[in-house]
Structure formats: structure tokens, C-alpha cells
Protein: LOW QUALITY PROTEIN: PRAME family member 12-like
Organism: Mesocricetus auratus
Amino acid sequence: MSSPSSLKLLAIKSLLKDEALAICALKTLPMELFPPLFQSAFDGKQTNILRAMVAAWPFRCLPVGALMKTPELDTLKAILGGLDLLIKQEDPRRSCKLEVLDLRDAQHKFWNVWAGSEHGVCSPDVVSESQPSVCQPIQRGKQVVTVMVNLSLNSRDLCESLKYFHWWAKQRKDVLQVICQKLEFGALPDYNPLKLLEVFEPISIQVLEVNGKWDLRTLALFAPGLGQMRNLQKLILNEILTLTEWITNREIQEWYSREIIIQFSQLNKLQHLYLNGVSILNERLDQVLRYLEHPLETLAITRCMLSESDMRYLTQGPSILQLTYLEISSVTLSDLSHALLGRLLERLTATLQTLKLKGILTDLNIGILLPALSQCTQLVEVSFVQNFLSVSSLKKLLQHTAHLKQLNVEMYPAPVEVYDHAGHVLPVRFAQHCSGLLETLRGVRKPNKVFFFSKRCLRCWRFCVYDLKVNLCSCLE
């Protein structure tokens, strides 16, 4: 005797062999057959059936993005064509329950439940729990359906599928709501990135990443869109460059900088802020942080200039009172700024869990930080790599971290004594000094994950690493 699942598969295969019959059967098709039939039609690229199924979908959400690992234009056109059929219905709620088309590339329980790979029967409760979470609509009115997307744009031009979706959605703005919770740029675009927001609800964007080495002009052109992202919670800006021809033109640099900085007054929901290689921060950090409604949880500032007034604001401003993650790396600081950094740590002793201070410490200034560092009892991870420290200074540093019992991951620089006059690592010294430093910790507590990193090896361009067992780069083995 055939099992119920086998009979279901046979029924699906039979339907898919006759396209007209499958489309006609949707009116009376049992609810539980829709997901497996949709998956089979999707895998078989039977676009006419997909179009009809979207218009007749019996669930509130269709998480088709979980199936579209590599979106194909014809399949996307069929899915959106199904929405067009739905939109044209006089009373779409009467025959179709679809409210949300989820195009995000994410795994959902929904398909596993209906495919039988999840334990348990497909009761209404199971179906409800398997539906992907959807934020509340931003605006109500005429819209028939909400489309959810996350965009990761890693090429200089838009792919054909996104170009088509943008055109399609722009024509239907009065009956459609497009929500993009995460927007990532991985390249400097040849198109105007601001035009993307013509079809999205900018207020829906919660995460924005710019990782493609944008120039100052491109970010300034995009800035009005940034200012509309009033629910933005996480902002990552990586390598915002000043073009060579602008270096001597202070007026144009200032204009672009003002256009960008002024938008931060609208981003009062920010919780996580990463500013890496952003040249416009100098003397403006207070303008970036002062409008936040709630204290930041994450602040990372790397590869840029900070003035003493910027550091002073960090020690006084309310927006950093509850930081759990702080990174200040490869930033040029004055002696007074190092003292201010010590005061900043004093303010964070009760909350800070991750601290990364890379490329800013020397034997002359590290002592300023140590008293406050030893009071940061919630620290779980620290990184002091890329600093130029002697064995003596590293011992002092380890003596102050040795009593931080929550530490799980610790990364320190190899002492300057492990290099020869040409900057090459001396293997015997490397092992001896790092082993001795590790014993400094072992004398107080049992360390978990402790690493000592050298500068990049001049021969193989890798790091030499010492942990609980000696690991050297290949050229030293």
C-alpha cells in the first residue's frame, strides 16, 4: 500500500504533466498541496503554473526567496505576473490570502514543514509558526501586497532581474509596498544609487552597508536617501575616499562633507555604527552622535583622524554610555587624546564586552589606559594587535587583563623584541617571549583563547601566530 506522501507526489506529478489541468485545479486544490506543487513547478521552471499559483496562494505569506538561490529573470517575471493577476482581481481577499511576497534569500520552516522534513503533522498551528516573520506595514491604504527584499549589490551595475523588478515596482507604487530591511553595496555603482529608493520604503531599511570604496561625491549624492532611513539601526561605512583632484579643493570637500554629516541628525534610532576609513569625521564626531535617541551598543572608528574635541565628546556625550562593543584602530591620537581614551573606558566599565584598540598604542602611552582597563570586568574579547609594544609593556598589559575573568578571546601583538633589524621574525625569540608572556596570565587564571600576532611576515605576507601551542608562518617552519 502506498503511503500518503507517495500518493501526494504522484498527484503532483500528474498535475504538472497537464499545465491547463493544473491551473484549472487550483480553484479546488487542497491547501496542503499548494506548497509541494509550487516547489515542483518552481524546480521545473513551469512559469505559467507559477503565475497562476501566486494569484491563488492560500497562505498569508509566500517565502519564495528561500527557493531563489540564483534568481532567474523568467521565474521572477512569472512570480510578479502572479501579483499582477492578484492586483487585477476586484476583491482579491475573497480568493487569495496572500499579503506578503518574501523575496529575501533566507531559509524558512515553511517549506520544510510542507515537504515533510520537519517532525509533526501540518496543523494550522505548525503552519502559522512556520510563516516567516514580517514587520507591520509602514503605510496602509490601497496596497494589495507587500514585497520584502534584502539587497546585496556586489557589482557596479544592476543585474537584469533587479532592473526588471525596479521597473515593475515603479509602475505599481499605488498598489504595492516594497520593504527592504537590509541594503548592502559591495561596489562603487555606475548607476545613481539614490534611484533605488524610488520603489523602496526608505523608512523600512534597518541595516545599510557601504563596502565598495565609494568616493565622497557618490556618498553625498546618496545622502538624502540616507536621511530618509529613520529606522536605521546599523550603519557600516567602509573606505569613503577623497579623489585626488579634490585634495586641494577644500571648498568642494567641505560641501560634500556637510551634505553627508547633516543626515545623521535624522538617524536617531542607530544602535550599531561602524565608520572605517571615513575621512570626514575629524572635528565632526559630535554632529554624528548627538541626535541619537538611545545610547549606541556598537561603535567602531578605524583608519581616520579624530581630534581632541572628538575624543572629548566621547568622554562626555550620552550616546556611548552603554557601549558593549568599542573599536578605535589605526587612528592618530595625541597624548591628551590617549588620556581621554582612558576616561572613555572608565565610563564603560559596567557594559563593555568587546574592546579593540589596534595600531594606536606604544610604550609611552599604554600606561594611561591600564587602570581603567582593569576595571572593565564584563569584557569577553579584547584585541590589541598591530600595536608597537615591548615585552615590558606587554607584561603590564597582561597583568591588568589577568583579573578579567570573563575574557574568552584575547589577541595581543608580539613584542618588538621578536624582530631583527630588517623586521623579520626571529622564530626562537618569538616562541620564547610569547611563552613567557602566556605564563604571566597562567599565574593568575586559566586562559581560554589567547593569541600573539606578529606584523605581516616580509617573506610570505602572513602573520606569525602564537597561541596555546606554537604556530609559525610557513616560511619559518
